[in-house]
Design goal:
Layout lengths: L8 E2 L2 H21 L5 E7 L3 H17 L2 E7 L5 H13 L5 E4 L9 H7 L11 H8 L8 H12 L8 E5 L6 H10 L3 E5 L6 H5 L4 E4 L17 E4 L3 E2 L5 E2 L4 H4 L5 E2 L6 H21 L3
Parallel strand pairs: 1-11, 2-3, 2-4, 5-6, 5-7, 7-8, 8-11
Antiparallel strand pairs: 9-10
Helix pairs in contact: 1-10, 2-10, 6-7, 6-10
The chain binds guanine (GUN).
């Protein structure tokens, strides 16, 4: 029997991120020639293994382009006050251009307060209210890394956005909401679905571009996708057998979509690439005296 052919183009996020890294390395060298070494402070609280892995990948990626990363690892017993004092010190440190506090934080920590304490001009995750507000009014200062990575993938593939129907599944502050705002800024017609949406398929079937960030394996099945749609899978789920999969039934949906991102190797590598981008941008602003 002839094997069925996949019809969708698989968007290689790893390759796009690698190409970005070459350009980023050159920008870091140019900054260093001006006496500025971009610095990223990475704050990790507690011992969540997924967070520890993400942080170690971010630190390695910094090294690969010449950004100096400064890790601050603290036990889950750190107090709110202690964490706020640390952030205050990082805000005042001229060698630190970006501050990243890995989420989630332990329940006794006031996450909103922590994020609001980060100086907006060092908020390379884009989670501070000032940066969120900027995004709402169509100004991007530090766009949140994951949706920024998705925008870069769409751009890399020359996928038009203006006037298209986009459905975002997942309404988190980190991905779904900023994703919708960035796509609205590009004149897409955007619908946001979430865990309480009834009959998800009636929305997803309309999407020219479907972005899924729900954290549910196989949430999106082929019959929920319009033929020729662009499908961006932001999910990262570890199955009991250890396999990492997204939120989309890749095998089925790739026979119907025109473009699809794989998991792993799609959006994930772009998230880190955009963190480096924001950090370099911050250092460039400093070097230019902004
Ligand atoms: N946890 C999950 N995603 C992210 C992210 O993009 N930034 C931070 N700081 N924490 C996260």
């Amino acid at each position: 029997m002839k094997a069925e052919q996949s019809t969708a183009k698989i968007i290689d996020g790893k390759a796009v991120a690698r190409a970005m890294r070459d350009k980023q390395r050159a920008r870091v060298e140019a900054l260093m020639a001006k006496g500025v070494t971009p610095g990223l402070a990475v704050v990790l609280v507690g011992d969540n293994p997924a967070s520890a892995l993400y942080v170690s990948n971010k630190v390695k990626a910094c090294e690969a382009v010449g950004i100096k990363s400064i890790s601050h690892r603290h036990p889950a017993t750190i107090t709110n006050e202690e964490l706020l004092v640390l952030i205050g010190k990082l805000n005042a440190d001229p060698n630190v251009h970006g501050i990243l506090v890995q989420l989630p934080l332990p329940p006794h920590i006031d996450m909103a307060k922590v994020l609001e304490t980060i100086a907006p001009e060092k908020d390379v995750d884009g989670f501070h209210l000032y940066n969120v507000g900027a995004l709402v009014v169509g100004r991007q200062i530090f766009p949140p890394c994951t949706p920024y990575g998705v925008m870069n993938l769409l751009e890399h593939e020359n996928i038009p956005i203006e006037g298209r129907n986009v459905v975002v599944v997942g309404a988190s502050n980190i991905v779904g909401k900023p994703m919708a705002l960035m796509l609205m800024a590009r004149d897409a017609t955007v619908a946001i679905c979430h865990a309480k949406t009834r009959d998800l398929a009636q929305f997803t079937i309309l999407a020219d571009i479907l972005v899924v960030a729900a954290g549910v394996p196989k949430l999106i099945l082929p019959q929920m996708v319009k033929t020729g749609a662009v499908v961006i899978d932001v999910g990262i789920n570890r199955l009991p057998n250890g396999k990492v999969v997204g939120d989309v039934d890749f095998e089925g949906v790739s026979k119907k979509a025109s473009y699809i991102t794989p998991v792993p190797g799609g959006v994930g590598p772009m998230t880190i690439a955009m963190l480096l981008e924001n950090t370099i941008q911050s250092a460039e602003r400093t070097a230019e005296g902004h």
